[in-house]
Amino acid sequence: MQNSAAEVPAGTPHAVAVIIPAKDEEDRIAATVASAKLIPGADLVLVVDDGSSDDTGPRARAAGAQVVTHRTNKGKAQAMMTGSFAVRNREISELAPGEQARHRALLFIDGDLEDSAVNTAPLAGPVLAGEADATIAVLPAQKRAGGGFGFVVGLAKKGIERLSGFQATQPLSGMRCMTREAFTATQPFAPGWGVETGMTIDLVWAGMRVREVECDLHHRVTGRDLRAQLHRAAQYRDVARALAARELRGRVSGGRRPGRETGGALS
């Protein structure tokens, strides 16, 4: 049960900005944007076209999204940063003289969710109600054939639990909602495909309330051909680097800083 408006803590986000990092998603981005615009509380949908070689940007704009473009591919972590800065700049530009900024919750989703994008709405609920600082989507088994062998997931899951105590169900889930304060606590991002793993650890270390939320989402599943295996090798490398960097940081700082809340799935 969510808090009433009178009980929502001060500084709680008043709306949701949906940020969609995307590269070469021209076949799916319009449907994803249209569905994201239906998320309750979302008053801004922003696509970061991360160096696409196709019409991802124009199709996202035609579907009603604000679009920021990277001329070259900079990776998901940088696309997330670009999107968050664009939202912050918009919030500042909306202020009347003497008015204090009110931040939106930042809801990051993938560009290939298509019509299921609206089903990320449960991620925003606890954040808007002041019940969580960050939420992470737990997806059902995907209907499309494919998928890997679990090496990267296992590495991330064990590493997150070892370093923070958080037991992640789907540690690589890219669908996440968080307050501006929580987002700031994750800086600097781990590079490459280690961004989600590093983010979860950093959130818990910063004392943020992190919750997992079940969401009925469907996206493209990576196959098992050579290209897919090279992609997983890059994922494994980046996750290992993110964990190693935080292992070192924990030793230098004298150990991890436990969070106020570590887990608890919401359905």
Secondary structure elements and pairings:
Blueprint: E1 16-22, H1 29-36, E2 42-50, H2 56-62, E3 66-70, H3 76-93, E4 105-108, H4 121-128, E5 134-138, H5 151-164, E6 176-178, H6 180-185, H7 195-205, E7 209-214, H8 226-252, E8 261-262
Parallel strand pairs: 1-2, 1-4, 2-3, 5-7, 7-8
Antiparallel strand pairs: 4-6, 5-6
Helix pairs in contact: 5-7, 5-8, 7-8
GO molecular function: glycosyltransferase activity
Keywords: Glycosyltransferase, Magnesium, Transferase
Domain Glycosyltransferase 2-like: 18-144
Assembly state of the chains shown: single chain
Question: What's the main sheet like?
Answer: 8 strands, mixed
Using only C-alpha atoms, the radius of gyration works out to 18 Å
Range of strand content: 15-25%
Q: How many H/I helices?
A: 8
Count the beta strands: 8
Uncertain stretches of 5 or more adjacent residues: 1-5, 258-267
Strands of the biggest beta sheet: in what spatial order?
A: 3-2-1-4-6-5-7-8
Domain module tally: 1
Helix content: 25-40%
Name given to the CATH homologous superfamily: Spore Coat Polysaccharide Biosynthesis Protein SpsA, Chain A
Shape: globular
